[in-house]
TrEMBL record:
Protein name: Glutamate synthase-related protein
Lineage, uppermost ranks: Bacteria, Bacillati, Actinomycetota, Actinomycetes, Kitasatosporales
InterPro entries, alphabetized: Aldolase_TIM, Glu_synthdom
Family to which this protein belongs: Belongs to the glutamate synthase family.
Annotated Glutamate synthase domain residues: 200-370
Organism: Streptomyces lutosisoli
Amino acid sequence: MSAVLTAAGFPEEQVRHRARHGAASVFPALDAYGSSLLGAVPAGADPGDLLERARIVPPVFMPERLKKLIDLAREPLYTDVELDTVVGGFTSRLPLYVSAFGSTQVASHDLGEAAGRQAARLGIPMVIGENVVPVNGYRSASDAEASPLIGRIAAYADAADDEHGGVVVQQSTEDADAEVWNLVYSDPASEPLLATGRLAFELKVGQGAKPGLGGLTVLGREAAGRVAEQYATDQVFGADSDSVLRISSPGTFTEEILRQQIRLMRNNFPRVKVWVKLHPGRDIALAAATAWAAGADSVTVDGAEGGTAWAPNAFLGQVGLPLGDCLTRIGRTDHCLLASGRIWEGSRAVKALALGARAVGLGRAALLAVDEDTDQGLVRLVESIALELRLLISSVGKYHVNALADEDVLLPTSQ
């Protein structure tokens, strides 16, 4: 390293890091792979995060509280707030769902199944992410060792009651090539969910952490060789490294392609609910409206703050609309809109719900909670969020989560 040049006020170390490591420096440090959950800048540190800067604003006069008082024949308390709702066609005990983890090493077989069991006990939906089958293969429930996808479905179904929650299976381009939805639809492990209307398929158009890109994960060369027919790879970590970057296709969509994909889903899989996941693109309102008009039961908006997996550093803080901007562009609607992106506590959740989301997703927060305690961690996390939801919703004089409205949130004015 030269000691001649300095660059005060310039990201000198970052430039030197790129100079030392080349293409690999575009990504987070490799030794963090498999043990770190990556996302945008920490909560409160992003000046562009509309939800962080917004405030929940209780009124002085509360006619809905008076209605509740008359109904109960006593003064209402925060414990009287009802949180049950319908999430993408599923009856859910809470306005929450577990977001997709996908095929990355962080969402291991054990953590994925533990998250499924706890989500089922809570009565909230769970999404299983893309690329699980192309990477790990598919083995039905009748095999000696079921694949991670079927293992997660079975773990959820075994712990769930017959009324609440549901499982959502996501599909990407490579999943479509592997006929993931066909396999799941015909597997006996899915029948209990199909019979009770609690299975959905989600078309993945994009994701918050990498808008416009497909999935990226790191594989050893031996593992990369096993999936070479399904995925391209890139030796960004050097020709002498055992690690390679596995590249997934982002897929190609126009309004007509999206409409036709949704219609095909409804025709080919009539027993499932149809979900669509969008990345935080600048035309998010048009994309959501297109999906609903084509018959989607739910549209998920993954804000730029979202993500549990591997993404280039440049994308984590610089690409895509923040979740709050996505919600304000779409506006409140009678359709089911789901939202994810740095949700881990009640105030951010309430703001998103007030701006139009029917429910909010837990991604990194869910994984961390399950990693902390595989039996009760997610349950405890959700319990804490539910308490905050009740406190905050009652503070604006309302007693059902679906009564929240944009009047309950003060958005920051432009500077």
